[in-house]
Write a structure and sequence with these properties.
There is one protein chain. By secondary structure, this protein is an alpha/beta fold. It has a single domain (about 1-275), classed as 4-Layer Sandwich (Nitrilase/N-carbamoyl-D-aminoacid amidohydrolase). It has helices at about 15-30, 65-75, 80-85, 90-105, 145-150, 180-190, 215-225; strands spanning about 1-10, 35-40, 110-120, 120-130, 135-140, 160-165, 165-170, 195, 200, 230, 235-240, 240-245, 250, 255-260, 265-270.
Length: about 280
């Protein structure tokens, strides 16, 4: 199996067809490079927060710039965004687009993550689509970050693998990979490769960060003798929301096989299971 991971630039799309064209361009490139599976990063819904078909009623209370200013000042108070990131319209846009493109290009797709409401609960979910456009399975985030806890996102322990063609694929969403026991359980369940959709959020490009905290996937790969593929978002969403693209592909020994040429540039990286 050949896997393509996407370091995605989170452009803001005003119109639905702009978003579709962007996703199709990425998937067609992966198909041209004989990829069997395309993997997107965490929080892909962020690029359609203000598309024409979204419910933006939550923004009517205050002007957008005032919200942005509040965010920059508070840095951590993102409660106003909760209503934006979990609309049914976003869910329907993402799922319909990936169903359509997986069938059109006869390629498997790992959607990356987005938020859904289910039984009055909020989840960070990742969907897998088959070459015929069908939904294979879904997995939910287990290790939540502070903002997700503040929003009331539900944690789900689901280390089961997903069968993609002839390969058993494991999924650890962002901080999930920081948990050695959770990763081990994924491997115990038969994972031959682990995908780690992540977002790479920073306040600003120069915001202090500890790079060792961005590379636990290397440790998990060595500990479990399994290749790990970690796609990130990159670029500015708007002032105060910057994503540092630190995408990596590491082999079973935790050695880096591929990473993007720039942390600010959209790029597709490729991995052959034979190179594990």
């Amino acid at each position: 199996m050949k896997i393509a991971i996407v370091q995605l630039n989170l452009n803001q799309y005003r119109y639905f067809d702009q978003y579709v064209n962007h996703m199709e361009n990425i998937i067609s490139k992966a198909k041209d490079n004989n990829a069997d599976l395309v993997v997107f990063p965490e929080d892909i819904n962020l690029c359609i927060l203000w598309t024409k078909y979204n419910d933006i009623a939550a923004l009517s209370i205050k002007p957008i710039l005032e919200h942005i200013f509040e965010f920059i000042i508070s840095r951590i108070n993102l409660s106003w965004m909760k209503a934006l990131v979990a609309t049914d319209k976003q869910k329907n846009i993402i799922e319909s687009v990936f169903m359509y493109l997986s069938k059109k290009y006869e390629i498997n797709i790992c959607s990356g993550t987005y938020y859904i409401k289910k039984n009055n609960n909020l989840y960070n979910v990742c969907s897998f689509y088959s070459r015929d456009g069908g939904l294979i399975d879904q997995r939910y985030k287990y290790k939540l970050v502070g903002i997700e806890k503040a929003w009331g996102v539900k944690s789900v322990y689901n280390p089961e693998t997903v069968q993609i063609d002839n390969t058993k694929v494991g999924l650890a969403i962002c901080f999930d990979i920081n948990d050695p026991e959770y990763t081990k359980k994924i491997v115990d369940n038969g994972a031959e490769v682990i995908l780690v959709p992540s977002n790479g959020y920073r306040i600003f490009p120069w915001y202090p960060f500890d790079e060792s905290k961005e590379t636990p996937h290397r440790d998990r790969a060595r500990e479990n003798n399994v290749p790990i593929l970690r796609p990130y978002c990159c670029g500015w969403l708007f002032p105060g929301l910057y994503f540092r693209g630190s995408s990596e592909i590491v082999n079973k020994k935790g050695l880096v096989l591929a990473k993007p040429s720039s942390k600010d540039k959209e790029e597709i990286l490729y991995f052959n299971m034979e190179d594990a």
